[in-house]
Design goal:
The complex is a heterodimer. By secondary structure, chain A is an alpha+beta fold. In chain A, about 55% of the residues lie in helices and about 20% in strands. In chain A, strands 2-1-5-4-3 form a 5-stranded antiparallel beta sheet. In chain A, β9 and β10 form a beta hairpin. Chain A starts with a helix and ends in a 7-residue tail after the last strand. Chain B is of the alpha/beta class. Chain B has 2 domains: about 120 residues, Response regulator (Rossmann fold); about 100 residues, Arc Repressor Mutant, subunit A. In chain B, α2 runs parallel beside α3 and α6 packs across α7. The radius of gyration of chain B is 19 Å and the shape is elongated. The chains are: A alpha+beta, B alpha/beta. The interface between A and B is large, with 45 and 35 residues.
Chain lengths: ~450, ~220
């Protein structure tokens, strides 16, 4: 389970989509909170300023300009560190009273409101924001009533920061959650995949583990398990039937053969029937051999052998086959040679591989006329090993190469030679069992049959 | 020799019993697994022939029970299951040999003889095998006939060793494939015959008395 495969899981992609949606929602929510808080606070500031103005207007109406100037001075004295800002100035904007100096360099809007910056001498000349309303009174006197908005700005910043952090944390959590969820999911799906691969490789006894949470993956695993149960039951049925055929039909054949054998021993050596009885035994043997080969192919194709695979030294196997068949080839007047590369081994069934190899050698020797040549080669290349048997016989026409692996298929030209027509079917079955391929090529002249075996048949994928 | 036959097919059983009696054996027969197990564990036999598929009790269960009881009696398993896995299973259960149905009676007899001989024979102290004037020295791996050294290929040596070890007894082609070549497979041609005739050319050629004989319909035998 690497990073790349994690990014490719549908769970992770789903998690990413949710992450984007969720982050968007959070952004909108926080944005709304920001907007409503800030406008509420601005509203509050304006309301406070309006209340101050109402108070001052009252004083002005009752006590005139002097009363107004006095009230402003009193208010500034009473609360020197307050957020209220006052400035009473001459028509030439020279300050008369208040806690702001000089008159701010900003033009008020048509409604008399102004936002401006000022230096607060009490904090070492730092610049602050303020909002105020400006009036022009009788005699051109100017009045400014406002509030320091630094708290408002600070709150705005706080909310902005919270908003950004909120989004960042949401994204991080969503990403983390996505990874964790996908990993968990990936692990469970990988378990299902692994089990499926084992089953495809022929081990039908495997089942997908169920966690017991009865979630959809458990249900999927349960359904797959029921499916495998059914397949196993059917396969067992097939095996059972073929075992029964073997037992039920081959037993009377045993009797037939044994009767003939008994007859053979009972007959005098000079009896004229002896040869006929011997021929009868040979015929029975041939029938039985065909039957045995059919059953053997059926059993190989039913699978299940792979569980019993052991490491097979292919070089030793090829050498044994070469040694066994060299004598036969030479007896027939063929030139036999072998080129075997050492140190090639794989997981497989030794006897079946030997059977496949000898079937190919049998064919090559059978269909090559005297004076010809048969060559056995074993070569490894990367992940595969090739066992090739080439002959200089009549070969197989290209159109027929696909058909020769079918059961009982025999070439017109070979009908007269003995054989059951099952030899190559058996080779094909063994090849399939080992995930190998059987290649039939023109050897110009003759046939070149190559068994291409993967060197790690059980560990691929 | 006392031989127990556990076989449910009455005709195969009758044939086996008849054939074995003709060979001079004293034969008991059980037609199902329960009786078979009873006889196998309560009586003393020199060898047992047990069918794998039996009513009442599986043949392999009998084999396992006999072995669990500590008996070393040679047991030959008969079965219609011909594949290598079934064979390995049978041998692992404690069987000494495994024969697939249908079998030639001569094949069964040859295997039974080999089992009986192996069981009777004390561990070999003799390292030289002799048949008439043919000598095989297992220590130096040399073969002589009438004092003349015969050069053999390693496989030819093993073939001759196995034949001489079973001198006077029929050895079948499948037994040779299993014992000398160590492969369980069905050759489509009689490839063994070629090896036998090569060996015969080396040990019998130029001598009056042929030692390596072909037994028609059965196999080969080395004897005087």
């Amino acid at each position: 389970m690497n990073r790349a495969s994690l990014l490719h899981t549908s769970t992770f992609r789903l998690a990413l989509v949710y992450m984007v949606l969720f982050a968007g929602s959070v952004l909108i929510l926080l944005g709304f909170i920001y907007w409503s808080t800030v406008s509420y606070m601005a509203e509050q500031t304006d309301a406070t300023i309006r209340a101050e103005i109402t108070g001052l207007a009252e004083q002005y109406r009752q006590r005139g300009l002097n009363g107004l100037e006095k009230t402003i001075s009193e208010r500034v004295e009473r609360d020197p560190n307050g957020s209220s800002v006052y400035l009473f100035a001459t028509p030439k904007l020279q300050p008369l009273a208040g806690n702001l100096s000089p008159w701010p360099d900003a033009t008020p809007g048509p409604d008399g409101w102004v936002d401006f910056e000022f230096k607060d001498s009490g904090t070492g000349g730092r610049v602050f924001q303020a909002r105020a309303r400006v009036f022009v009174l009788q005699d051109g006197l100017h009045l400014l009533v406002g509030r320091d908005t630094r708290e408002l700005k600070a709150t705005q910043q706080l909310i902005t920061r919270a908003l950004l952090w909120g989004v960042a944390i949401t994204l991080a959590l969503a990403l983390l959650g996505g990874v964790v969820m996908s990993r968990g999911m990936l692990r469970r799906i990988e378990l299902i995949n692994q089990t499926s691969r084992d089953i495809m490789a022929g081990d039908l006894s495997q089942r997908i583990p169920i966690r017991g949470s009865d979630d959809e993956l458990d249900q999927l695993a349960g359904n797959l398990n029921s499916m495998i149960d059914e397949i196993e039951r059917l396969m067992d049925g097939i095996r059972h039937v073929s075992d029964n055929i073997a037992h039920d039909l081959r037993t009377p054949l045993t009797r037939l053969r044994n009767r003939l054998e008994q007859l053979q021993t009972d007959l005098e050596d000079s009896s004229p029937y002896r040869e006929q009885v011997e021929q009868g035994i040979t015929d029975a043997d041939q029938l039985l051999a065909t039957f045995a080969a059919l059953l053997r192919i059926a059993r190989i194709e039913a699978g299940g052998h792979t569980a019993k695979f052991k490491t097979v030294d292919l070089a030793a196997l090829a050498r044994d086959a070469a040694e066994l068949y060299e004598a036969l080839a030479e007896e027939k007047g063929l030139h036999f040679s072998a080129g075997i590369e050492d140190g090639i081994s794989l997981d497989g069934d030794r006897d079946l591989l030997f059977q496949a190899l000898t079937n190919l050698l049998d064919n090559a020797i059978k269909y090559t006329p005297a004076g010809g040549a048969v060559v056995l080669e074993l070569k490894g290349s990367g992940n595969t090993a090739d066992i090739a048997i080439s002959d200089s016989g009549s070969g197989i026409a290209e159109a027929e190469r696909d058909k020769v692996g079918q059961r009982f298929y025999r070439l017109e030209s070979s009908r007269s030679t003995p054989g059951s027509g099952l030899g190559l079917s058996l080779v094909k079955a063994v090849a399939r069992l080992h995930r190998a391929s059987l290649l039939l090529e023109d050897n110009k002249p003759g046939l070149r049959a190559t068994l291409r075996l993967p060197l790690r048949p059980n560990r691929e994928g | 020799m006392r031989v127990l036959v556990v076989e449910d097919d009455s005709q195969v059983a009758a044939y086996l019993v008849k054939g074995l009696k003709e060979q001079g054996h004293n034969v008991d027969h059980a037609a199902d697994g329960k009786n078979g197990l009873f006889l196998a564990t309560s009586e003393d036999y020199d060898a047992m022939i047990i069918d794998r598929m039996l009513p009442e009790l599986d043949g392999l269960a009998i084999v396992k029970s006999v072995r669990a009881a500590g008996k070393t009696t040679p047991m030959l398993i008969l079965s219609a299951l011909g594949d290598v896995d079934a064979r390995v299973e049978g041998l692992r259960a404690g069987g000494d040999d495994y024969l697939t149905k249908p079998f030639a009676f001569s094949e069964l007899l040859a295997r039974l003889d080999a089992l009986l001989r192996r069981a009777r024979q004390a561990p070999a102290t003799e390292t030289t095998l002799r048949v008439a004037d043919l000598e095989l020295d297992q220590l130096t791996r040399t073969v002589k006939r009438s004092g003349h050294v015969i050069a053999l290929q390693p496989r030819e040596y093993r073939l001759l060793e196995y034949l001489m070890d079973n001198a006077e007894r029929v050895v079948t082609r499948t037994m040779l494939l299993e014992q000398v070549w160590d492969y369980h497979f069905d050759p489509q041609t009689n490839v063994i015959d070629v090896h036998i005739s090569r060996l015969r050319a080396k040990i019998d050629k130029g001598f009056e008395q042929p030692l390596l004989q072909t037994v028609r319909g059965a196999g080969y035998m080395i004897r005087e």
